[in-house]
Amino acid sequence: GENVEQHPSTLSVQEGDSAVIKCTYSDSASNYFPWYKQELGKGPQLIIDIRSNVGEKKDQRIAVTLNKTAKHFSLHITETQPEDSAVYFCAASSMEYGNKLVFGAGTILRVKS
Amino acid sequence: DSGVTQTPKHLITATGQRVTLRCSPRSGDLSVYWYQQSLDQGLQFLIQYYNGEERAKGNILERFSAQQFPDLHSELNLSSLELGDSALYFCASSAAGGADDEQYFGPGTRLTVT
Questions:
Q1: SS (H, E, C) B11-73
Q2: What angle do CA A39, A55, A19 make, to 5 degrees?
Q3: Distance between CA atoms of residues A109 and A64, nearest Å
Q4: Which of B44, B99, B105 has its CB closest to that of A31?
Q5: Are B97 and B57 a contacting pair, CB within 8 Å?
Q6: Which residues does chain A have within 8 Å of residue B43's beta carbon, measured at their own beta carbons?
Q7: What dihedral do alpha carbons A11, A14, A19, A22 form, nearest 10°?
Q8: Interface residue B36 vs chain A (CB under 8 A)
Q9: Using CA atoms, how far apart are residues A4 and A11, in angstroms rounded to an integer?
Q10: Residues ≥6 apart with Cβ < 8 Å to A98
Q11: Residue A27's closest CA among A1, A7, A49?
Q12: Chain-centroid distance, C-alpha B29
């Protein structure tokens, strides 16, 4: 089945710096890659996603890149702010896995002010 | 606020008991998913329903069952509870249940089994 690995497990950055979180997936059939942000005591919040026919997508300070050949995708957050502090999860989905999302283990992002 | 609602927010029960978790999807969404989040297993897919029918199954235990009703709300039933079932249970919904549909998560139910 699909396996998603996420790095790093924790990331500390200074306010205003950029943060990058990387994920790799195992199955080339995967075609949808969402990113979720989870704050303490809340459910995962979809922040951006990318589909396999696109290499990069940007939404204000957040961008995601996808390299299908290498089977990896990354989340980029620029000009980080204290409210960006949360746990971030990547995920991959494929029709071959019954439309389910397979999640990475998560990255704890701390933005120091 | 994602528009997905879950009740109850917290649930404390004893081993061997049975509980029911409830989820209402976003308005217009036909598909519901259940996930379990624990410290050791992370976020794990349990089961998906689309318009009342089971569409996909993940690592759901035989002691667990779910259904989606005609009004599209869903219930997850957990029986013969064990200590290891303590976790956060999330419901998510999507418009059509496809592999690249955006899934929106509810606030979750925290289950504690004592």
A1: EEECCCCCEEEEEECCCCCCEEEEEEEECCCEEEEEEEEECCEEEEECCCCCCEEEEECCCCC
A2: 35
A3: 16
A4: B99
A5: no
A6: 44, 89, 103, 106
A7: -20
A8: no
A9: 18
A10: B48, B55, B56, B57, B58
A11: A1
A12: 15
User: Who contacts B62 (Cβ-Cβ below 8 Å, separation ≥6)?
Assistant: none
Tens of pLDDT along chain B (114 residues) come to 899 999 999 999 999 999 999 999 999 999 999 999 998 889 999 999 999 999 999 989 999 999 999 999 999 999 999 999 999 999 999 999 888 899 999 999 999 999
Provide, as residue numbers in chain A, all residues whose Cβ is less than 8 Å from the Cβ of B108.
Answer: 42-43
Cβ–Cβ contacts within 10 Å for residue A79, how many? 11
Task: Return the structure tokens found at A42.
Answer: 């809340």
Prior bond of A82 cis (ω within 30°) = no
* Beta-carbon pairs below 8 A across chains A and B: 63
Distance of CA A19 to the CA centre of its chain: 11
Place of tokens 């569409």: B55
